[in-house]
Specification:
Strand content: 5-15%
Structural class: alpha/beta
Shape: globular
Largest sheet: 6 strands, parallel
Oligomer: single chain
Helix content: 55-70%
Number of strands: 11
Length: 302
């Protein structure tokens, strides 16, 4: 028996040590495992947060798109058009004839919509709470429809500036295409039926102006030319605007058709100077309405 006891005693100790080591190992694994689990769950939380943020942004964009689509559908159903006095339909206007001393000026921008510069001009106008009139080129509307949607959404006026911005002589069929096709894409893009037209380059004898007159568009020219299409220096551009600026005037600038960085740079100074001189800013329809009311008042006094 003594031999038997001496044999089992060391074996019992060995078993006890194995059991103790196993318990220690299990405890260590349990301590380590939660940390590993936390490390694995951390990316999961981050991914969930990113996914939620992306989902929120998508819902916002979807809501904005739905609101814009709804607005366009309502506009198309109503057939929105700018209310102009009949006396201006088919007429050529370079400025408004105001005799009551109203210091108003209309800012107009040609040849857009255009990447970068149109959005920059819109940002400046929005910051200053100013509404302007944009004479757009049809093929640019086709290429950059979202920019024109923003022009309208920001409350500005959209006008026709032909499809290709050609200067050469056009037969009646070509002139009709240039104007009608542009008016059509403006309407399909924004729901606005424009009745304002400006001939490219101010050319009156190449076919498009005659077609516009016969189609009862108001032909809008200008009284103050920034000459920004020739890319003058910013100080010269500003001087060009104010050289002939006067109450009831129409200022010609460009947001498209090329590099318009000088126009964008000069615009805040132009606005600030007009404000300093006591001017208010109006759209072309507002300007024509002011003239019409004044003429009616004068007629009633006679």
């Amino acid at each position: 028996m003594e031999n038997s006891k001496s044999f089992f005693w060391p074996q019992g100790i060995l078993i006890a040590l194995v059991a103790l080591f196993g318990t220690f190992s299990l405890g260590l694994m349990m301590l380590v495992k939660p940390n590993a689990s936390d490390a694995q769950s951390q990316p999961s939380i981050s991914e969930t947060t990113v996914s939620a943020q992306a989902g929120t942004q998508q819902r916002i964009e979807s809501l904005k798109a739905t609101m814009l689509t709804s607005w366009q559908q309502q506009a198309q159903a109503k057939g929105m058009a700018y209310p102009l006095p009949d006396s201006f339909l088919g007429a050529t206007i370079k400025e408004a004839k105001l005799t009551q001393g109203q210091k108003v000026i209309a800012l107009t921008f040609d040849d857009g919509p255009w990447p970068e510069s149109t959005a920059q001009v819109l940002d400046i106008l929005k910051k200053n709470d100013i509404k302007a009139t944009f004479f757009v080129v049809g093929q640019n509307v086709k290429n950059f429809p979202d920019l024109l949607k923003r022009v309208v959404a920001d409350g500005h006026i959209v006008a026709n500036h032909t499809w290709h911005h050609w200067y050469h002589f056009m037969n009646p069929q070509t002139a009709a295409y240039e104007i009608d096709h542009t008016t059509d894409i403006i309407f399909k893009t924004t729901g606005v039926k424009t009745n304002l037209f400006r001939p490219p380059g101010g050319i009156m004898h190449n076919g498009v102006a005659n077609y516009a007159k016969n189609s009862k568009y108001a032909l809008i020219m200008w009284s103050s030319d920034s000459m920004d299409y020739s890319r003058p220096s910013v100080p010269r551009l500003i001087n060009n605007v104010f050289r002939e600026a006067k109450p009831g005037g129409i200022v010609l600038m460009h947001d498209g058709g090329g590099n318009r960085s000088q126009t964008v740079e000069a615009l805040p100074t132009i606005i600030a100077r007009f404000k300093k001189e006591g001017y208010s800013f109006v759209t072309i329809p507002e300007l024509l309405e002011m003239q019409d009311k004044e003429q009616k008042l004068i007629a009633n006094k006679k």
